[in-house]
Specification:
mainly beta, 41% strand, 93 residues
Length: 93
């Protein structure tokens, strides 16, 4: 079952970055909007498991690459638009 009263929008942005001293430049990024449907999906008993596995993103970034993700959520009817939730880099890409 899909509950469209939770979000007006949701997307996950994955970024591959080159690790450098200071700010790590983004080499490639990709948005995945299918996460909204997964977050709003439930069983008939309203059990939301919230699991989501992204499709593959790949790019030859070299040995000092890392991955970041940003979750953008636009809560239904709050009038605030997307809120940004950053997740720090992973040394395993």
């Amino acid at each position: 079952m899909d509950d469209p009263t939770i979000f007006d929008g949701a997307k996950l942005r994955l970024q591959i970055k080159q690790s450098r001293q200071g700010t790590d430049p983004v080499v490639i990024e990709r948005d995945f909007t299918a996460i909204e449907g997964r977050l709003e999906d439930s069983t008939p008993n309203a059990n939301y498991n919230g699991r989501y596995r992204t499709p593959t993103i790949s790019h030859r970034a070299g040995p000092r690459a890392l991955a970041d993700s940003v979750l953008f959520l636009d809560w239904h009817g709050d009038g605030r638009g997307y809120g940004r939730h950053d997740y720090t880099g992973s040394p395993v890409v």
